[in-house]
Amino acid sequence: MFGGLATPSSSSPHLRKSGSRVVVSDIGVELINGVDETLLNSFDTEQMKAMNPAAIMPTPTALWRFKVLLFFAWGFICCKIGWDSVMRMSVDLRDLFLYEAFLYYNPLLLVTLMVWLWGINLWVFAQSNIGYAKIFDLDQNHLTHREIWKVHSYFIHGYHRPCSLPLLKDFSIVLKLLHLIDLFFHCHNIFLLCVYVQCAMWMTIVVPTSMTAYLYLYSHGEVSLAASQPVLLYTAVALILIFPFDIFYLSTRFFFLRTLWRIAFPLQAISFCDFFLADIFTSMAKVFSDLERSICRIVHRQVATIAWFEADSVCGSHSVAIPLVLVLPYIFRLFQCLRQYKDTGEKTTLLNALKYSTAVPVIFLSALKYHLFPEKWTSVYRPLWLLSSVLNSLYSFYWDVTRDWDLSCFTRIFLFTKPSIFSYFLYGRRWVFLWVIASNLILRCTWTYKLSAHLRHNYLTVFTITALEIFRRFQWAFFRVENEWNKTNPKSGIQLSSASDVSSEDKLIASNYSV
Question: Where is each EXS domain found (predicted)?
C-alpha cells in the first residue's frame, strides 16, 4: 500500500551481516531513520543538560585560566594608569607626592603580606599535625588554612587523586616547575601554592586599585576626589573589622578584637595567643606608625594638600606621636612579661621583659635628633643610639635561639604526615638550620634601622626592611609554635622522635643490605 514501509524478508540479500554497515533498500526508510536518529539525539542532549546543570557550565580549567588572565590584565591596567599618572606630574612634585601616596597604602600592603604568610603557617601546622587550635585556645568555628585559603574548584576536585595541571605550562617557568612537581606528587599538597588567601585577596585587589585611582585623579586635577580615596579605604577597613552582624567571619573578628583588648590591658592571665600576637605586633611597629600618620592627616584634612610638606606640622615627620606609636608594641609586651612574673614567679619572664625594654632607648634616642642641635646629637646621642641598637639586636637574637626555639628538634615541624616536596627539601636539612639562624641575626640587626625615626625618609628602603622583618617573623612562627606544642604535649614530641629514629634505622638497614 501507499505510504507503507517496505519490510524485506529475512532471506533478503539487502540485510546486513554481523559486523557490516547498515544497508537499506528503500530510500524513504533511510531518510526517515536518519531524521528519527537526529531527533532522538537532540532530545537526549537536551534531556541530559536539563538533568545535569554542570554540563552547560564552563570547565574548572577554563574558569581558572580566565581568572588568572583577568588578574594579570587588572595588574597591567593598574601599572599602566599609575605610571602615566606619575609621568604627568612635574619632577619637583613627583617624589614628594609619591612619598605621601606610599605612606597611605604601604601599611595595608604589609598587613596583606602578613596574612598571606600566616596562611602558609597554618597549612604547615596542619600538615605536621600540630594542634594549633589547642595552643591558641580556638573554638570549633576558627578559620583553618582551608578557610583562609580560597581553593579553586579545579584543585578541590583533583584532591586525593592523581591529576595533571596542563594549563600551568602556558604561564611562567615557575608554574612549569610546579606542574612537574604536581605530576610527581599527584596534587596532594602542591595545589595549595596556587591558591589565593581569602582574607588577603580583597586587600590585594582593592588597595592597589585605590592607589591607582588616587594617582590618576590627582594628576588630572581632581584633588578632592583623590583625597577621598584613602579616606574611603580606611573607613571601609575599620567598618568591616567592627561590623557587629554575623557576616565576614564574626567569631574570628570578635576573637581578634578581644585579643587586642587583652594585649592593651593585661588584667588577666596571659595566654599563648596573647603574647604570640603581641610579638607579631613588635615586627609591625613601623606599620602602626604609618597608620597613625595616615589617620592623623585624614582627621586634619591634610590629604593631597600642601600641609603635609611641612615636617613641623601636626602630622609631620617631626611629630612626637611617631616614637610613641613605635614603642607601644614593646611596652605592651613588657607589661605582659611583668604580668606573667606576677602569676608564675618565674625569673625568666623578667629577663624577657628586659629584652623588650632595650628597644625603648633605640626609639627615643633616634627621635631626639629632631629636637637637638646636630653637633650635640652626633657627638653624644648618636654613639648611645648605636650602642643600644647593638645591645637590642644581639639580646633579641640570643633569646630567639635559646628560648623561643628548641634546637634539639629543629625543622621537625616540616615532617609532614603525607609525602611532600617541601618536607623532602626542609626536614632534617642542615642548610635550613644555617639559613634560619643567619637570616634571623641579620634581620634582627637591620630591624633596628627601621625603628630609627631619623632614617624614615628613605621610604623604599624602610619598606623593604619592614617586609623582610615580617618574613623573619613568619620563619620564627614555625619554630615558636612547635616549641610550645612540644611543651604542652610531650608525648607528641616523643612520637615524632621515635618515628624519625625508626625511619633512620630503616635507611641504615637498607644501606647495609645494599652493601
Answer: 313-512
- Residue-range definition of the domain harbouring residue 459: 60-152+195-402+423-484
Residue recorded with cell 588567601: 197
Tell me how far apart the alpha carbons of residues 483 and 23 are, in angstroms, rounded to a whole number: 80
Any domain includes 8: no
Closest CA to 382 of 368, 393, 398: 368
Q: HEC profile for 382-396? A: HHHHHHHHHHHHHHH
CA 496 to each of CA 432, 436, 486, 492, 505: distance values in angstroms, whole numbers, following the listed order: 19, 21, 10, 6, 14
Q: What is the number of structural domains in the chain?
A: 1
Q: Which residues contact 460 (CB under 8 A, 6 or more apart)?
A: 102
Whether 351 is in a domain gets the answer: yes
Tell me the whole-structure pTM to 2 decimals.
0.73
Strands 196-197 and 149-150: antiparallel
Q: Is 171 domain-assigned? A: no
Give CA–CA dist 265/503, Å, rounded: 48
Using an 8 Å Cβ cutoff, are 346 and 340 in contact? yes
> What are the pLDDT tens digits along the chain (515 aa)?
444 444 444 444 444 444 444 444 444 444 444 544 554 455 455 555 455 554 456 787 888 788 789 888 998 999 999 999 988 888 877 877 888 888 899 999 999 899 888 888 888 888 887 877 788 876 655 555 454 544 333 333 333 333 333 433 344 444 444 444 444 333 333 333 333 345 667 778 888 899 999 999 988 888 889 999 999 999 999 998 898 888 777 888 888 899 999 999 998 899 999 999 999 999 999 899 989 989 998 998 888 876 555 655 678 777 888 889 999 999 999 999 999 999 999 999 999 999 999 999 999 888 887 788 888 888 888 889 889 989 999 999 999 988 888 776 667 788 888 877 878 888 878 888 889 999 999 998 887 666 665 566 677 888 888 899 999 999 999 989 888 888 887 655 544 444 444 344 344 334 333 43
CA gap 212, 217 in Å, rounded: 9
In this structure, the chain runs to a length of 515
Phi, psi of 267 (to 5 degrees): -90, 0
CA pair distance 257, 244, nearest whole angstrom? 12
End-to-end Cα distance, the chain: 92
SS3 139: coil
Picking from 167, 181, 201, 172, the residue whose alpha carbon sits closest to that of residue 59 is 167
DSSP state of 150: E
Q: Decide if 436 is inside a domain.
A: yes
